[in-house]
Specification:
The chain is α/β, with parallel strands linked by helices. The strands form 2 sheets. It has a 7-stranded mixed beta sheet with strand order 1-3-2-4-5-8-9, with helices on both faces.
């Protein structure tokens, strides 16, 4: 990735070898694959092949993040998708926070992806609104991650580059325009109490997305970084149920098509 600092221990890309059903997971802004490691590990226990790439500039040093743009972050996720394609014939994508917006952009570009799960997807971030259009300071002190479970530690940066905030804002501003064109089955998960991204973001996604198959799940005991919080097992269970349902639908469609083809040939 041509980064200047080594990867923080524990923040490395995750990969769990499994069957030909792939699950691609994107962490959020300032996060690392460590924040979605529980989801990845648990989903791998169902037999899926799971990959959680480290988005460029994350998990090293905030100087690296300053040198990235939103296209770099999408490219990191897209590269993970292409790696999974080499192993898997069926792929689902999960995205948390900014990762949710990136996941929506990925399924818009690759409509053959079988399903998308967004967790507290970010289309707006009120705390960063004051930095729109400003050129300083270069770095802003970042508070503690929004996690209800106080025993959890998330690997992240203590400072966020102003340039990176502006790049995040570009993603959030540009994503809504593509949502109506998305036809991919979607599971939208939101925390009832989120101090970073308003839950209305998820409501908007589900209201405007073009998908015929769509479902909402509300978490009652987690804050923004839900993949590390008290409801993380609920996310796993709901995700596995969603994937299983889509696999069943796809199997039924395939068998119906094969049956019709056979009947046509016999006739």
């Amino acid at each position: 990735m041509n980064e200047n600092f080594s990867v923080i221990q524990g923040a490395e890309e995750l990969y769990f070898e499994g069957n030909d059903i792939g699950v691609l997971i994107s962490h959020g802004f300032m996060g690392t694959p460590q924040s979605v490691e529980y989801l990845g590990d648990r989903l791998a226990q169902f037999g899926y092949t799971v990959m959680a790439p480290r988005l460029k500039g994350h998990g090293t040093h905030h100087f690296d993040l300053e040198n990235c743009n939103h296209e770099d972050w999408f490219a990191s996720l897209e590269e993970g998708y292409k790696k999974l394609q080499q192993k898997c014939s069926t792929i689902f994508v999960i995205g948390q926070s900014m990762g949710g917006a990136l996941a929506l952009r990925l399924v818009n570009k690759y409509p053959s992806i079988n399903g998308v799960i967004v967790v507290n997807a970010a289309l707006s971030l009120p705390a960063y609104e004051v930095f729109k259009g400003v050129t300083e300071p270069r770095f802003i002190d970042e508070g503690e991650p929004d996690i209800k479970d106080q025993t959890v530690h998330e690997i992240t940066y203590s400072k966020v580059p102003l340039h990176a905030i502006h790049e995040l804002q570009k993603i959030m501003e540009n994503t809504p325009a593509i949502i109506p064109s998305i036809q991919t089955p979607i599971l939208a998960i939101k925390s009832l109490e989120d101090h970073v991204v308003p839950s209305e973001n998820t409501d908007y996604i589900l209201k405007t997305v073009g998908s015929k198959v769509k479902k909402m799940i509300t978490l009652t005991n987690s804050y923004h970084v839900a993949s590390m919080d008290y409801d993380k097992e609920e996310i796993v269970e709901q995700t596995n149920r969603f994937i299983s349902n889509q696999l069943l639908v796809n199997y039924s469609k395939r068998k119906y098509s094969e049956s019709n083809n056979l009947n046509t040939k016999c006739f």
